[in-house]
Amino acid sequence: MNGKWMGLALCTLVGWLLPAAGVAQVVCALGPGASSYKPDGNQRPTPDAMELAERVNTAVKTICSPNCPSTALLRNATAANLMLVAEAGQAKLIYAPQFFATAYERYGDGAILGILAHEMGHALDDAMGAAWVKSSWTPELRADSWAGCTLARIELNAGDLEASLAALAKYPPSAQPTWSARLPVLRIGYTQCGGDGAKFDRGGAGVK
């Protein structure tokens, strides 16, 4: 991993809607300016980004297989930091290179894994359900619960788990409840999917 990424901000839930053919629907954007996104600027991800996305994707497949949402990772300098976009029946994770850089430089790999897990959480929530995912939770909390599940399946070491939680706390969705409301939901997803609750508690203890 190198430090060739920059930038990060907040997530604004736009809503998971089935788009018309050929029309991109922004589901969630981690930052302002989604209206400035230009799809023709999409490019292949860097090897660093792809490596981390593959770790998330492998974990997600253990949760939803054989009915996993179809996803692709792309980079685009006009993206609103990190975006989940639905287009032609496929979910696209589109990141601005400057977005990932600051997250990585501050927290390392764990930050990127946590942020990607949250965005994939929206896709998982749309694709499937689970008894432990409460219908009373907001869409963002449900995405957090699936993010916790995904982080458990990645089997992060203690340092990367702490970094993931720190990044999720540092860069919250704008429509999201406080961290004190999010952390228990992340923990539920983490433990329901095989994660060690004590390890999670240690990782989240110092996160504000």
Report on the structure:
With 208 residues, this protein is α+β, with helices and mostly antiparallel strands. Helix content is 48%, strand content 12%. The chain has 7 helices and 5 strands; from the N terminus they run ββαβββαααααα. A 5-stranded mixed sheet has the order 1-2-4-5-3. α2 packs across α3, α3 crosses α5 and α5 packs across α7.
Tally of helical segments: 7
**C-alpha Rg, in Å?**
15 Å
- Number of separate structural domains: 1
Estimated helix fraction: 40-55%
What topology, given as strand order, has the largest sheet? Answer: 1-2-4-5-3
N to C succession of SSEs: EEHEEEHHHHHH
Q: Low-confidence parts lasting 5 or more residues at pLDDT below 50?
A: 1-10, 12-21
Kindly state the number of beta strands: 5
Secondary structure layout plus pairing:
Blueprint: E1 11-13, E2 25-30, H1 47-64, E3 71-75, E4 82-87, E5 90-95, H2 97-107, H3 109-127, H4 139-154, H5 158-170, H6 179-192, H7 197-204
Parallel strand pairs: 3-5
Antiparallel strand pairs: 1-2, 2-4, 4-5
Helix pairs in contact: 1-3, 1-4, 2-3, 3-4, 3-5, 4-6, 5-7, 6-7
Could you list some keywords that capture this structure?
alpha+beta; globular; 5 strands; 208 residues
Please provide a brief summary of the model.
The chain has 208 residues and is of the alpha+beta class. It is built from seven helices and five strands.
